[in-house]
C-alpha cells in the first residue's frame, strides 16, 4: 500500500519539482485502482520497491535485502502510521481551534499558556473570515488548495 503514502509525499514534492509529478500521477492511478480492488497497471509499487531497497542497500546490504523481502509489510506499517498521525493532527488542530473560540486560548479552561492563534489573529486579522459565532474558514488554506489543484491538474490538461 505504498501507493497511498507515496500519493501524499509526491503531491507535495510535485509542487516543487517536475521529476516527482509523474510519480504523483502514477501513485494516484495506483490508489484509485487499489480502492476499487484492482491491481496496479503502472507497476508503481514494484518501481518504488526497487528504488527504496536499492537506496537502502547502498548503506547496508542486509537491511536492503530485508526491506526488499518485507516491502509490503513495511508499506502497510507506514500507511497505518500515516493515517494515525493524520487523525491525531486533525484532532489536535480541531481541539485547538475549538478551545480558542470557546475559552479564548488553545489549551482549554483555566490555562494561561501562549496560543498561536492569538498571534495570527492579532497580526493578520484580514486572513480570517468569520462566519457566524464559532465557525472559521482560513482563506489562505482555501487559496493554497485552489493553487495546488490548478498547478497539478488543470495546468497539465491545457498543455
Quantity of strands, as a count: 2
> What value does the Rg take, in angstroms?
21 Å
Number of domains: 3
**Overall geometry:** extended
The overall pLDDT average reads: 77
Terminal residue distance: 31 Å
Give a quick account of the main beta sheet: strands, pairing sense, barrel closure: 2 strands, antiparallel
| Side-by-side strand order of the widest sheet | 1-2
Continuous helix count: 7
Helix content: over 70%
- The fraction of residues in strands falls at 5-15%
Q: Please state the oligomeric state of the protein chains shown.
A: single chain
Q: What structural class is derived from the secondary structure elements?
A: mainly alpha
**pLDDT < 50 stretches:** 125-137
Series of secondary-structure elements, N-terminal to C-terminal: HHHHHHEEH
Amino acid at each position: 500500500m505504498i501507493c497511498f503514502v507515496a500519493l501524499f509525499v509526491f503531491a507535495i514534492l510535485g509542487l516543487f519539482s517536475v521529476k516527482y509529478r509523474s510519480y504523483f500521477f502514477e501513485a494516484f492511478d495506483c490508489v484509485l485502482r487499489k480502492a476499487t480492488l484492482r491491481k496496479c497497471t503502472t507497476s508503481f509499487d514494484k518501481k518504488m520497491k526497487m528504488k527504496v531497497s536499492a537506496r537502502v542497500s547502498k548503506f547496508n546490504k542486509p537491511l536492503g535485502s530485508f526491506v526488499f523481502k518485507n516491502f509490503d509489510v513495511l508499506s502497510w506499517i507506514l500507511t497505518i502510521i500515516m493515517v494515525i498521525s493524520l487523525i491525531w493532527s486533525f484532532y489536535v488542530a480541531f481541539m485547538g481551534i475549538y478551545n480558542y473560540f470557546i475559552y479564548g486560548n488553545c489549551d482549554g479552561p483555566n490555562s494561561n499558556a501562549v496560543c498561536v492563534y492569538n498571534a495570527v489573529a492579532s497580526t493578520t486579522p484580514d486572513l480570517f473570515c468569520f462566519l457566524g459565532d464559532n465557525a472559521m474558514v482560513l482563506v489562505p488554506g482555501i487559496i493554497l488548495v485552489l493553487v495546488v489543484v490548478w498547478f497539478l491538474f488543470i495546468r497539465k490538461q491545457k498543455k
